[in-house]
Amino acid sequence: IGLVVTVVERMAAGDLREAPTPDRTDETGRLLSAVKVMVEKLGEVIGEVRGGAEALTAASSQVSSTTSGI
Q1: Is the pTM of this model over 0.85?
Q2: Contact 8, 31 (CB under 8 A)
Q3: How far apart (Å, rounded) are the C-alpha atoms in residues 11 and 30?
Q4: CA–CA gap between residue 43 and residue 29 (Å, rounded)
Q5: From residue 2, how far is each of 15, 32, 33, 41 by CA, in Å?
Q6: Which tens digits make up the pLDDT trace of 12-67?
Q7: What string of DSSP letters covers 12-69?
Q8: Residue 8 vs residues 33, 53, 60: alpha-carbon distances, Å
Q9: E strands along the chain, which residues?
């Protein structure tokens, strides 16, 4: 449980670099597995949001350039 608490505290602080490695098959191991998947999926979502924000910034710049030329 201590490892899960540590990982979740890191996540709460914005650190998603390290997902736990489950090495048990009991309830604690299942909890570690679920936290690992959550960390990985959250990292994917953040990456997608960043990509969308970058695309929006580029599109905004193009619209601004186009309107300035008109």
Answers
A1: no
A2: no
A3: 18
A4: 21
A5: 17, 10, 14, 22
A6: 898 888 778 888 889 988 998 998 898 889 989 999 999 999 999 999 988 888 88
A7: HTT--S--------SHHHHHHHHHHHHHHHHHHHHHHHHHHHHHHHHHHHHHHHHHHH
A8: 13, 26, 36
A9: none
